[in-house]
Amino acid sequence: MEPIRAFSGKVVSLPINDVDTDQIIPARFLKVTDKAGLGANLFADWRYDANGAPRPDFVLNRPEHQGAEVLVVGDNFGCGSSREHAPWALKGAGFKAVISTSFADIFKNNALKNGLLPVVVDSDTLQRLHNLVDEDPEVRVTVDLAAQTLTLPDGRSVAFPIDPFAKYCLLNGVDQLGFLLGLDADIAAYEAAHPSRVNTLAL
Amino acid sequence: MTQPQTLFEKVWAQHVVRPQTPETPAVLYIDLHLVHEVTSPQAFAQLRERGLRVRRPGRTLGTMDHSTPTTPRNALGIIPVTDAMAAAQLDVMRQNCRDFGIPLFDLGTENQGIVHVIGPEQGLTQPGMTIVCGDSHTSTHGAFGALAFGIGTSEVAHVLATQCLLQSKPKTMAVRVDGHLRPGVTAKDIILAVIARIGVGGGTGYVFEYMGEAIRGLNMEGRMTVCNMSIEGGARAGMIAPDDTTFEYLAGRPLAPQGADWDRAVARWRALPSDEGAVFDNEVRIVADELAPMITYGTNPGMGMPIDGRVPDPDGVKDVNQRTALDKALRYMDLKPGQPLLGQPVDVVFIGSCTNSRISDLREAANLLRGRRVAEGVRVMVVPGSQRVKAQAEAEGLDEVFKAAGAEWREAGCSMCIAMNGDQLQPGQYAVSTSNRNFEGRQGKGGRTFLASPLTAAASAVNGVITDPREMMERVYS
Q1: DSSP notation for B129-160
Q2: B350-361, pLDDT tens digit by residue?
Q3: Contact B306/B294 with Cβ under 8 angstroms?
Q4: Looking at the complex, does the CB of residue B391 fall below 8 Å from at least one CB of chain A?
Q5: Topology at the third CATH level for domain A7-195
Q6: Residues B239-264: pLDDT tens digits?
Q7: ipTM, 2 dp
Q8: Which residues of chain A lie closer than 8 angstroms to B83, CB-CB?
Q9: Does the distance separating the beta carbons of B325 and A18 come in below 8 Å?
Q10: Inter-chain contact B161–A177, Cβ cutoff 8 Å?
Q11: What number of C-beta contacts closer than 8 Å exist between A and B?
């Protein structure tokens, strides 16, 4: 995976709490066997009408928000299913970071494995971001993973937490599967000490 | 003296390959990996790209459930797949299982079914195990005292290739349900009440342990219903200490230990329950005697209330975001603040899903439907959780009860819970559903879902409107 660098990006505001993964990418789009093309169906039921035409009033469809790389949402983003198609769709639509006060556990893990940064801020900062985008749709923020800071247009920086291992992997382009494969000796030792008590091959 | 431990802490400690450090998460060994067609193709593709094999095919089991049709078999006994994308996805699953040596319960074969129904059914799900699947309802298996949670597709690849996951240790929450359930109130109502209490994000970062007299009093299928919906409260996993109820359920199942192995296993399992004095990071308490059948009114599982309640008014909600969310939900549902849900007309009743598609769920629904007819114009779908559940139900004559009542008796699968197989609501339709999610469009674009128990679903099917099952049960049991 490509190492993540600090970036400055345009922001879209979607001030809705508890956005579930069925809204991020509805289940009928999960009949694919690869990751390509999911961005077109991001928020499909909010974004398109019954005939598949873009709804002009939905924020992602507004011309001033095209090319946005940061999505600012409500509390508890990404609840519901484990589908990694959700971060794939967000990445596919060009997003590099999502900002909320909290993320559902599985979504957060999935996002971090795909270079989509789940940026957690306090509720005042979140509200301020929504207000800033309302006032100026061209507003940009800077997300710096190495420094773990989010910098607002007024120059104010807020720190955000991130799992240290995920951070290390993202900054250095380390892939977690490669890391696990490197632990073969530890895994083999565990297996030798804990013989399997199930065998699906016996079915 | 050693520190008293919770059930979760014991299972976690027994599976640590490498402990957590300040720089790295723990490396956790996974005993059982369940795989289905929707969240695995990209993981197998990754293994192929890197020239990797599945490390432990004997700890892995594939099934088909999400995109599979539940329509009747053809003259050759085959379930036809008419959706080309679904057919291609199922073919990829077959090819992956063949190439990587993983056993597969193929569509329509005798053991096929919903991934969280087949594991327990085969005796694969056992106390003290770590179990994962690319599906958030993997929490179901925690009913046996296993640590079981959903993972994403990247993690599916990790487990396929290494049988391990990188995990940070979650916190623990005791969910205590004291007292006794009243007639007509079920496991589904317990978990809907818990989620209504804590909200859909209340369990984020936690593993639940359900405990208390009412939990001990549930059979295994009821316990699975409770653990299944842990994720709807934000908890990746929910667990229940194994006891005699657990062991009786497991004994004699195809992959449960046999003979002397069984005795050793039970001795091991008896050491798993949380120690006296074990400390939880948080606790919530519910009194079962106070519970009524529950129903949801909104667009997430936390928007639930007693069935005889009234839809809440957004104006009464202080928090602006919650008020906005409630207002948005009621507009989607086309419901008015203050209105009762009893008497609300419904178009569809769905009885099925990994939450409520097991034999005891079907028995409960059938008991209520026996000798009755579903209301004119209401579509009622009964979808057994597995081919084995279907066969058992047919052996008991439940299929005849459903058909005589005017319900559809279908093949096994996830069906209208996730609505990606053609079983779906039409825009604007209302459904009472025994499934787990009432998100916007979850059961079909524009569809509106009321989550409830199998009893409430069956009673509502008969009247064609949302109905308190207790009204009908006096006649059932008298």
Answers
A1: -EEEESSGGGGGGGGGT-EEEE--HHHHHHHH
A2: 999 999 999 999
A3: yes
A4: no
A5: Aconitase; domain 4 (3.20.19)
A6: 999 999 999 999 999 999 999 999 99
A7: 0.97
A8: 31
A9: yes
A10: yes
A11: 220
